[in-house]
Amino acid sequence: MSKTLNREGLLEAYRTMRTIREFEERVHTDFATGEIPGFVHLYAGEEASATGVCMHLKGKDCIASTHRGHGHCIAKGVDPIEMMAEIWGKSTGSCKGKGGSMHIADLSKGMLGANGIVGGGGPLICGTALASKMRGDKTVGICFFGDGASNQGTILEAMNLATVWSLPAVFVAENNGYAETTSSSWSVSCDNIADRASAFGMPGVIVDGFDFFAVYEAAGEAIKRAREGGGPTLVEVKVSRYYGHFEGDQQTYRADGEVKKLREEKDCLMQFRRHVTADGEISNADLDAIDSEVLALINESVVRAKADPKPEAADLLTDVYVSY
Amino acid sequence: MARKITYQQAINEALDQEMQRDPTVIIMGEDNAGGEGSPGEMDAWGGVLGVTKGLYHKHPGRVLDTPISESGFIGAAIGAACNGMRPVAELMFVDFMGVCFDQIFNQAAKFKYMFGGKAETPVVIRTMYGAGFRAAAQHSQCLYSLFTHVPGLKVVLPSNPYDAKGLLIQSIRDNDPVIFCENKILYTMEGDVPEESYVVPFGEAAVVREGDDVTIVAFGRMVSMAQEAADALQKSGIHCEIIDPRTTSPLDEETILESVEKTGRLVVVDESNPRCSMAGDIAGLVARKVFGSLKAPIEQVTAPHVPPPFSDVLEDLYVPNAAKVESAVTRVAEYT
To answer: Which of the residues A40, A300, B13, B117 has the least number of beta carbons within 10 Å of its own beta carbon?
Structure first.
């Protein structure tokens, strides 16, 4: 499988996944000290999904994300330094401290924003994909959404519209098993979210979200089809999150030892490392070097976020309109 | 017997007592119990901030978790209300009204009138509002003015634990759709609340404090801000009368107008954005009906006309506070 990516590509995939993991583990640690304001929803455990999809994207391609958006941001090229500053509420953040964790966005990178409204991104991606189609520039739009959002009208309407207009869009359902505390095995009326694809006239595929290569391959096929005018696809990524719905969630709804087992047996970084080093294409030392570089980057992001200035009082009233 | 409990406990107690009293009362919402279908514990959360915790086990089969489908389950609560039930649906954060507003304002709000008075829709939609949690623009808004704009909806804004219990019981017993707005910062506020069941009627403002110099009309959490300001102003000889309307629809106009006729000066304190707000509504009412009594221009203390910001320094500037109320009252009092 790794033959589809060259050495450079493999190292890039690993770096992206490791950056997301390190970023999230660090936010987890720092949130516990009480220094980070508001709510954070961590993506740790799901790195192969954002990375496996976004490796196929270019700058002008668009993604819409969720409240659990840090991983999508990093995978789409948003600067982790600016992201960390945003989470700390600093003026140097991606959104000048006005959005916070749940609203990190960078339109210059085709990242339409993490979203505080479950299912909010589906219709937006129909819009970006419509623009792509009308311009004929072969760009695509990816809607990341969760198992919770899979039951929202907006997502169902968006999938219908995407087929009706034959849009260059891909719907990526990240089924991490829980909408807050509620199991997707209860809240989703069919066995798989991907089963709904046929009702919307599009292909539906299911992939193991702990397996980077499975995600990479399925997403590649769907994105290629979208770019070539073949219309939308629904990709269901079966995965899990390592932390609670938000930080502070006691997770009493989960089984004892559930996360420990996943970390030990399924972890995407562990599997990736085992896979690429077995082929001999990449050495453990190569990956360890990336680990060190990523750790240094995340440390720097926190040092800078702590030292950076907060917004000025006058900033409260700016940015509401382009002109008024 | 009154004892001190929190605003959050008062809401939980009102739900519990009404569920005991009336078997048609049911509760539904996202994670109102929590853990449905999951391998761990049921009633894992009792709502995202734990307000409905414990009711799941006390009232088997009557606390329903829902998928994240606000249009679906808010509409279902409205439909059940048309068919003999008294549902209390939880719209977690009021900001999510954007997902399901059709069911609320085109459906529930219209049935009574549109069907020639023949329909009744005794549904309650409980929802959290307000800034202060660093939860940013999509989880911090004060949207009660939007609900108040719509005929057919009753809109309730309890400012303390006593009113939270009594107003919620009244909401459940009321035969119209009620939007019950809970300020999330107030959940930990303690106050005297009787153990027994009681109602606080709609459309009756509370005169929280009497005074002859300036009338302050304040909503929800802003009542506490007004009290803090009034305490400080008292020391400089300015005596405020504070009115808490408690419901914005129906609105107790008489109590507000009588107070302004006495004081001749008005400050309205409203956490929402200023345009087309309760602050503007009350100012318009007073200017229209008791213009001759006014001795000073009306002042409004509101959030600015921007979305709620994330960063703590900006959010603290965004939310009205006692100091802002104090300076507005002082300006009005000193106006000649």
So the answer is: B117
